[in-house]
Amino acid sequence: MTSTNSTLQQVTERIERRSRDARAAYLERMHRAASEGPARGALSCSNLAHGFAACGKDDKQALAGDVVPNIAIVSAYNDMLSAHQPFESYPAILKEAAAQKGAVAQFAGGVPAMCDGVTQGQDGMDLSLFSRDVIALSTAVALSHNMFDAALCLGICDKIVPGLLIGALSFGHLPVVFVPAGPMVSGLGNKEKARIREEFAAGKIGRDELLEAESASYHSPGTCTFYGTANSNQMLMEFMGLQLPGGSFVNPGTELRELLTRDAVGTVLEGTSLGDSYRPLAEIVDERSIVNAIAGLLATGGSTNHTIHLVAIAAAAGITIDWQDFSKLSEVVPQLCRVYPNGIADVNHFHAAGGLGFVMSELLGAGLLHDDVNTILGHGLGDYCREPHVEDGALVWAKPPEGSHDEDILRPADNPFSAEGGLRLVSGNLGRAIVKVSAVDPAHHAIKAPAKVFHSQQAFVDAFNAGELDEDFVAVLTCQGPRANGMPELHKLTPYLGVLQGRGFKVALVTDGRMSGASGKVLSAIQVTPEALCGGLIARVSDGDIIEIDAGTGTLSVTGVDIEEREAAIVTAPQYGLGRELFGAFRERSGSAESGASLFTGNP
């Protein structure tokens, strides 16, 4: 048996010590909830009658007792967003599968799902991060009727899966299984898509050509195929043992996809307290599974958004992690994947090359995952080193390939793309920030150049179009943190910075905002903490100040000048319109990015 890597073990033990009191209090609450027995037993006759009034005769009879399990379905379905449109048919499939096993399933509630692909660069993006906490609250409302013995969570994209999990953890005495819908089939290649975006930014092509390319890329039901936050979510659910093995990147509308969806029902039923294999969510999400999630994020080059979301998820389970944990693990976890934006391939190509089962097998073999964890399948992460197939109309499981089918996309642990995970913590007199270097050429890992300060993405674009940025500089974009405007993603900057770097200029970005999994090839120190509105010195940087970012030494500083005596320049966009005025309490209470940027972990 392979011994656990010493750094992985040390980080885990540090998290356990740091979390001891809060984790114990959380587990005590969950054990108390579980000891009360099947939830419906605590309801009065009137309560219960309301809870199954709309059910058929057989389901009413079943729910009148306390020995037939009732599954809550919580879904992020809507038919505007490609990733969630396939969920339209899932409730009927899940209810039928439950009935076949002598159980009942009820659609307990829906949660909102917004798409950053629609809102990026628009005012609606200011709601994006806080929608995660709304989803958590909505999940709690769905489960609050206390009618259920288990839950199935249907969600895919950026804030939806973290929000569902945070909400479900308040009901951690229940077994919970996550049910994905899979990615759309491959469209326009990522290299071509990136080229066309940069040509549009440079004014070489018009909007018609750009829209044609975007429509050829995002073209059908399913998740977007690049490896951003949405597909990183799916990886995390497998690495945490909360989703069926190998199911993340099976396309919608296929026989295998439906068989996996049906199998999720049997899996969650096996874990209820009514049987002999009770597997509550609270005992699956622990310190070791959180460390496994970080290792998976690093090995696959996943989204930097999870340096926020995983912190908030862990906190919901009484576990405290910080960016130092990510950085320390990044020193020892190798990067095994090259998936766009860290490469050319998309998640369909990655899945065909060997997928998550291969990655997990390699990391376990290298001692870089905890195997002794609880999962929805039982105990041990080894159950996840396999992949699903269809044989004669039935779901069967097989070992992952022993070798990668394409080492330009996926490599073994003894021949990685990089010996480290490519996620680094930088700090200095500007605060603490995350740098993702997995897609950045080593020649661009450090910069020392004059600052150009902007207070909005549009101000940067206007300066670019005016020809004011053709030189070496560090773009400093302030007042983009959760307290300022909800911390929108700053995708609008990516193609313009790419054009400038392509022209031979040394450029980089420093911001208290987010860049997500699409941060790309330009050095970016993101999620600067403390943010401008919380006393961060990023608000005191002026044009011409020399900024140093060095991913190798972990440096983020203004050099040669003392900026602490300056007045802070706080310039924020009006927070009204498109519902932004309704989120004032979220902005006021939000914690820092490093604490999860959450309503639940912030200060009044």
Task: Tally the helices.
Answer: 21
What does the main sheet amount to?
8 strands, mixed
Helix content: 25-40%
Per DSSP E runs of 2 or more residues, the count of β-strands stands at 16
How far from one another are the termini?
Answer: 49 Å
What percentage of amino acids are in beta strands?
Answer: 5-15%
Mean pLDDT: 92
Low-confidence parts, pLDDT < 50 over ≥5 residues?
none
Spatial order of strands in the largest sheet = 9-10-14-13-12-11-15-16
Write down the domain tally: 3
Structural class: alpha/beta
Query: Compute the gyration radius: what is it?
Result: 24 Å
The general outline is globular
What does the model show?
The model has no long low-confidence stretch (mean pLDDT 92). The protein has 604 residues and is of the alpha/beta class. It is globular, with a radius of gyration of 24 Å. The strands form four sheets. Strands 9-10-14-13-12-11-15-16 form an eight-stranded mixed beta sheet. It has a four-stranded parallel beta sheet with strand order 2-1-3-4, sandwiched between helices. A two-stranded antiparallel ribbon has the order 5-6. The protein has three domains: 322 residues, no CATH class; 32 residues; 151 residues, Glucose Oxidase, domain 1 (3-Layer(bba) Sandwich), CATH 3.50.30. Helix 18 links the parallel strand 11 and strand 12. The chain contains 21 helices and 16 strands. Helix content is 36%, strand content 14%. The termini are far apart. Helix 10 packs across helix 13.
